[in-house]
Amino acid sequence: MLKKWIVLFFCLLITNLHAQQNKEELAIKKVIATFFKGLHQGDSTLMQTTLHKDIKIQTTSINKEGTSILKNESRLKLLTSVANKKPEHVYLEKLLAYQINVDTSLASVWTPYEFYFNGKFSHCGANSFQLFKEDNQWKIIFLVDIRRRENCKALKEMN
Question: How much is the average pLDDT of 67-80?
């Protein structure tokens, strides 16, 4: 009888831990969805709610000579460029998947994507988000992405 209670206790504990993990993953996805909603709408105020004040932002790509490039961007520059987005410009960053890892107040999220400008495919790549949970809110503390036009599923579908 005691073995049944122990098994039941551990089953409940595991179920509770799994539910907590799912709750955190949903909260993290919501932060990222809000970030992109701000980008798509040109709403820097909305986007700003997802960013930690000390965020680090980088972009990587490969130039025509085949050399890897790493560019740094400031929080202010990102928010200013979103705020100055022309209304006739339509951005759509289509996230293809989420890979989320969480350990208490730190989360890592990998999101492969396709980017469309005014309805036309522009490039693909992946985003790597690092989030920190501060005062019970997840904030993006680091964002790096890669942008490329090679080996993109959308390009293969267009040809």
Answer: 96
